[in-house]
Amino acid sequence: MTLPMTLVLVAMGVAEPPDRLAALAERHGASVAHLQLADPALHRELDRLADAGVPRIVLVGVAFGIAPGNSWLRRVAAHWWRERPEPPEVVVATGLLDHEDDDLEAVLARARPITGTEAPLESAAWEEVPAHRHQVLVCRGPRCTARGADDTARALTLALMAAGLGDDGVLVTQTGCQFPCNHAPVVSVQPDDTWYGGVGPDEAERLVETLGARRPPAGERRRVIRRL
């Protein structure tokens, strides 16, 4: 006998539009959880449903933009399932919804239950800090986000990919508020201790052009706001 299904749409990226997620969830009678940064986190939503006695939870990842691969959804869900005493059945779709008009039934047809044999959260590949020359911190605080930091982060990632600069060259990290908010969107580069204000998509591309050949400066550092 198939148990009743409780559907959870899981935002995979850091910039999935909340209004689009909410509308999609309402259309399908689902709740929303987040794989990273936003609330409720996936494990919190799974706890809530399990505590309520839900017998079968179906997870479908949603990615309207750049996001981790779908294997991360299964890995995180499996970690929760192994740690939870007497967990409910958890089923994870093997495909993602990347548009509001995607066929949910087709995605659900390829869903597979968690078995407990999935890959763990830990891996030898993630033991060491990447040997990067620069870490680029993209502010995603409320003011920077309101002024388009999501577009900045997307443009930065795409430009780095086009330039062949991976984590061993430039490590990108999205953060909470960094200050100074009047210069939003703000991006800082370490270990240069260099701060940039007003960084939109065009400026992000120009920043990437400078990072390939730059080396961390020696001597005294000054915290100043720069324009590209």
From TrEMBL:
This is Thioredoxin-like [2Fe-2S] ferredoxin. Pfam families: 2Fe-2S_thioredx. InterPro entries: Thioredoxin-like_sf. It comes from the Bacteria.
